[in-house]
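fold-stage: in
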Amino acid sequence: MGLRDLFRRSPPSAPPAPTERRFHQDRARMFDLAGTGVLAQLFAMPADERDRAWQESFFDLAWTASVAFAEPQTFIGPDGFPYLRLDLPHPGPFDSQCLGNVAGDCLAHGVGAALFASPDDPPERPQYVLSFGLIDSLVRFDSPWGDPIDIEEASLPDAPGAFDVEERASGRTMIVKEAHEVLVGAPSADFLPPYAARALAAHLEQVWGLEDPRVQLIADMQMRPHRSLVIGRKRGEFPEGAPTDEMARMLLWYLTPLRNVMLMPEDWTPNQMTPLRTLY
């Protein structure tokens, strides 16, 4: 396939598999006021001291701890994406909410979620931000680390001699050194569920200006993980000077952790791609 532009997240170390759902839908265990107090203690820890153990504690609490909606409920973050604002409340009565109760609504409306230590904190000072794709991972895979298939594949040793790699801040360029077979097809609903396809299509229409956004799935056993989502626009079709790498990297916001995106190869044509509108 020649030159490939690939944008990916770095793989985390996988936690042990839970014996029951961690991010459940049991409302009897939601709206936990005790969890709110512990979450406030976590938020008091300086950001540079928040290690993996801090993250695990955060996720154990954030799903069910009682929080309050802001007014307005959503805002546009510094990254340009929409977020539902969830605040730790001031002392006194408040209408209790929790992340687990609204996660499905976030996915239905194409928004992430941002948790704040106080209703008084400005939008640029969230304590933790959850992208659309991260919320999707919590709901579907019961994990903040992504699809177990991707986690397993990302942990495999690199295929020796398969690619020349140029690392950049926003991603990597991979050049195929030896020809090898890949599988190409339409993304399944497991890889790109309808609500994610709808949100991604809206972004490509409104931000990229595509009238008929298209995607395809490529499975390359030499890649880590193997599957990548191909976006139906070639690098050569972007205006000169456009922040192409950054624009492509931002699409990861819609995908679960460890998922990859790549631009359409120069030798492909749009009729080889799947219209996103057929996936939702």
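fold-stage: in (second)
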Amino acid sequence: MNDVMALSWFDHRRTRELCGGLDIELVPLATPYGGLRRYLVLTVRTVALLARRRPRVLLVQNPSLVLSVLAVALRGALRYRLVVDAHNEAVDPYENRQFCIGALSRWVVRRADLTIVTNRQLAQRVREQRGEPFILPDRIPAAPGGAARTLASGYNVVLIATFAKDEPISAIFDAVRGVQLHLHVTGNPARLPGRVKAAAPANVHFTGFLAEGDYWSLLRSADAIVDLTLKPDCLVCGAYEALALGKPVLLSANAASIELFGDGALYTDNSPGDVRRALDQLRAEQRPQQAAAARKRDELIERWKTSAQALRAALAPVHPSVHRSRPLDAAPEAESRERSP
């Protein structure tokens, strides 16, 4: 899609897979600077890039909210159609609940020609904010080749974590305390509050931040994978990664996850007792859960292809003077809604 360009200010698997599946050029802009200097540098580079390239359709990843606001501000002058690949935080802020963040997020939704979201619950919020949604869950990633690593003897579970505010880490640690299993926790443990880390039971092992190959090797070695969130209607990346490997997976019991992944996963209410119950069930049903994960993987791969074709049609560039006079394409969103769980 030569007239469509995607921009991001930080690397995320969802946007990479989306652009790869649709053959869209993705330009990730990065800088070693932090704070205000980071935003200033990336803003200058973004303006220069868009002025030089003049895409007919621009797709931006939100977060970054600053990038999305900039893309809206430049649209009138550079005359592109704007599509926002909106993560949960871009539609329904959880970690940053300040009034100004919410107001800017809603403004971006209203001004974008199309807002891509992962599920019907978020699509409804986009409509309530007077935006135009398109439902497309994440693409099942292609797991890279490589050998599994040797883990401790016994039952090994990988907890996919970044230690963000929405992750019930303390509840998970309480759930595995005294249980005969090894819990391997990914992510940089320096982000974990000291009191929580100090209270981790002896069967919890912090892996630290892993390079891509080492990360997939760890997942491949696990008996089961856990990725939990307190965010409502959030489809976590770890769920797709677990299905890619055909691994039993435990997810939070929000409506969006249950609708999309169905019997391809087990679910918990995030309380310590229920997490422990679900882990016991995963262990007892190892083979059936593996088979269910593999079936769901194949199903979601095919469903993504169908929805992606509809999105490809919606992204087909039209005359750049046409902006909000009509939705970018209402029919593909309706088709996506019918095919979504």
